[in-house]
Amino acid sequence: MFSIGELSKRTKVKVPTIRYYEEMGLLAAPERTEGNQRRYDVAGLERLSFIKHARDLGFSIEAISELIVLQGHPDRSCQAATDIAVSQLSEVRAKIKRLRALEKELVRISKGCDDEGVSENCYVLASLADHKLCHHDH
Amino acid sequence: MFSIGELSKRTKVKVPTIRYYEEMGLLAAPERTEGNQRRYDVAGLERLSFIKHARDLGFSIEAISELIVLQGHPDRSCQAATDIAVSQLSEVRAKIKRLRALEKELVRISKGCDDEGVSENCYVLASLADHKLCHHDH
DNA sequence: TGTAGTGTCTCTAGTTACTAGAGGTTCAAG
DNA sequence: CTTGAACCTCTAGTAACTAGAGACACTACA
User: Fold this and answer.
1) With CB atoms 3.0 to 4.6 Å apart as the test, which of A12, A67, B81, B86 could cross-link to A124 if both were Cys?
2) For the residues of A83-131, what is the DSSP string, one character each?
3) How high is the ipTM of this complex?
């Protein structure tokens, strides 16, 4: 049995965040001491590790809730869980794509001033003011 | 002079968002009709286009505020504006890096079930439950 | 001039995933 | 038995909006 602080250290999830997950229904409410403090068992630790890992991979709280429900239904759970992971993957890929476009644009914009030695007219500000100066979509 | 709705159509910024920008001090409070409705001039339109463009490039409201201040100080503004753009660029690059790692991991996780035909033990769920199964940092 | 319908006004509250702080209680060590 | 760290609940704040309520304004048509 560990306290919330110990759980926090082991999982690297902050104490208020653990309480937040409990409130959101991701984490079952654990036993309490007589003095009303939370005491977790190994199952609680594993559950929180699962949540932490999924959050690190960018899954939303909602998606994690679904995954947790699936854990309780070994039949059919694999396909559904894979679907969630695949959809997460496509979101990640979409974000990467978008960020790459932004990266290109920002490289171009932030190089402007140095390259041309323009000082009275800032190329960064001009580029932001006038979308026509852009070379890419965004 | 255009109404808030017209401004919204021209800039593709939603009406409540325009009011929000005004409240946040990004956009000057425009003239009003006798009936208290906002009426914008070309300067307002240009300012909002600038904000929209910068937001699309991922600049925070705070960074945009700074850029707007810089627009009013043609001296020194170029270097400072470039600094903001460069810092935005490095944030974008950091995000891309992180997302690529997640992408790899998600590809691996979501392929697990199909590849090995495991059905009673879902690889997605197992991977999330046990970080040791990961091949990359995240 | 009347009226219908759309646009606009302000204000409050909700979103996501936490984080910070106040004010009070409990636990563990010495 | 006392001290100090850890814990408790509750409220409010973060970013950048979005949604909805209820009331008022503007425009076009008859």
Assistant:
1) B81
2) HHHHHHHHHHHHHHHHHHHHHHHHHHHHHHHHHHT--SS-HHHHHHH-G
3) 0.76
